[in-house]
Amino acid sequence: MPKKRSGGGLSPTQQAAKFLGVSVLAGVVLAGIALPAAGALGLAAKGSVQGFDDIPANLKRPPLSQRTTILDAQGKQLAQVYSRDRTVVELKDISPYMQKAIVAIEDSRFYQHGAIDLKGVLRALNKNAQSGGVAQGASTLTQQYVKNVFVEEAGDDPTKVAEATQQTLGRKIKELKYAIQVEQDLGKKKILENYLNITFFGEQAYGVEAASQRYFSQHAKDLTLPQAALLAGIVQSPSRYDPVNDEAEATKRRNTVLQRMAEVGDISQAEADKAKQAPLELKVTQPRNGCITAVKDSSFFCKYVEQVFLTDPVFGKTRAERAKVWNQGGLTIRTTLDPQAQASVQASLKQHINQSDSVAAASVLVQPGTGKVLAMGQSKPYGYGKNETEINYSVGSDLGGSNFGFPTGSTFKPFVAAAALEQGKPPTQEYPSPYKMPYPSPVQACDGKRWTNSEHADVENESTSEHGPYALKEAMAKSVNTYFVQMISDIGLCPVVTMTDKLHVVQGNGEKLPQLPAIALGSKGITPLTMASAYAAFASRGTYCTPVAIESITQKVGDQEKPLAVPRTTCTRAMSEKTADTVNSLLKGVIDSGTGQQAGLSDRDNAGKTGTTDERKNAWFVGYTPNLSGAVWVGSATQQVKMTDIRIGGVYHDLVYGADVPGPIWRDAMTGALAGKPAPSFNLVDIPDADKGKDKGKGNGRGRGDNGGGQGDDGGLIGGLFGALTGGGTGTGGAGPNPTFSAPGGFIQGQTGGTRGNANGGRHG
Length: 765
Fold this sequence. Notes:
single chain; five-stranded antiparallel beta sheet; 22 helices; elongated; disordered C terminus
């Protein structure tokens, strides 16, 4: 009698000899006997069978693909993603009933034979000859395991999967040789463990743990006898014996397994009969795969994390390498998502804008000084139906977002101001700032060339009553277009481009901003994440940090876990502390008395800027506290909707401004996100008002002479007159029905019927 190994099979030499003997005697039987005859399938030995000795000696066993779990910053699950739903478990964590059931029905002589069961081969040969077709196969569990390895290695490539499962002599011979090697290397228990973890059980479940969870919502170690028999029966044909879709057929198959277990002595006949009477008692857990299933309205953040993984070289040199790691799975990804901040963002979006509205909103919160993305949400949820979208409006095209981002309007102006301050311009810098003017030309650019206004294009302010001269503080508060175009003309384009480069401000498609003065007006598309991260540099006193979404990753390979390197934020100085402090003081004024008053927070230092674009296709608010920065965009992803005469969130707007839709979304999102958090203060800079001798007396819709020192009571006319007389400047009245009139020398400039405007005669983006 041949000497057996401790694993229960023959030695490799004996197996090879048996293999060759069977080859001589049985020919095509070596196809696993799942073939009726070589001729019937058009197979011929010549050219179809690789030489036995030419087959590589070692079977490459790739790590089994498993679920990846994505967690928030507190370690709570957001979503699970996988190419194959599988959780690898050790044999000790698999019910003994399950181990016995699969052996009984798939390979009852598993512990008696080696890689090849000669008795099984001859039995199948006889059975198939009698039937004239494929009545019975003879693959052992070991051979089935090897076949599954081939399939696993093929992944989702249909061509490779077909090659791994094709009924050819060449493949079966390769399978047999590797089965011999596996028997030698692993032994019976490890082969059984691997088989139960790799095989497909239907309903998207790979491996017994996933199958147990899918059909019974419990762990594999807790499977009862009837449950184990049901799962073991599914393996032969997961579609035919699917208990979810055909309970009767699955029950018959389960009972077949139970009877076989009794026949081989694993259970008594009485136990089998009792188990056959048991109902299936399924407790199905529906597959929840992918970011579409993410909780806490975090689907877009989940997709952002996935795209970061697939694009960052830290996870592999090429996208193909990174995708292979992602699809292999077994990852536990702890992210930066703060559940309090995320809940606040989504609650604010839902309060102010409806999913069915003709426009959408997106909001991102970023932590200054760390770059951590704490929240990311939008009004139209992730999905494929009506009023749903797969596009993440918060990020660029490289990360699954908009191809171009969205024009930012006046939220770009702080970058121009920061560039000018870095060039030594004082915060009291004044420019004439007429209501309308041609773009200044020529303007110096970075490359030694000059931009010229060859098309004779004009730039104008929001209102005809808005004209200078203005100093920076007032121009920022009122968002004066002509002021900032003149500022760019003064300092040149290069300082602005240098500043935006330091703040990593690029277009949504990843391209750098063009060198032309119109960038001061936010004419190019930028993403909310880019804007929130750039403004965070103001909050952190001039230090820019690249955004990050991943805190840590561990990967489970087999029963081992290892940490993976993750992207780290890179923090660099973008501007001096003095410049950042000055910008903070300017933008605090926007919220205190400028266009952003509707967005301000009442319980802590905060600053920000509004923005609207041509034809009101986009509206923005970007703002921050010393410990949180946030951006809100509202508009149409197609850029086809003009936000005039429109209802948003059930509220009518004749004209949409950055302050009255995005502003309140930002305010409420920030309020909830910061609840219970520290309230640090800015390091503010005292920015003096313009020279009193040159100051402008101004009247607004409420009759207040801003800097001239007078109060008006009649719609701004008297205030403008008195201010002009005492301040030597220009009096400007509020919005009203009568046309503007003026007198030389800044004597009077007001409107007699103003009742609703501010100092510039109207609200601004």
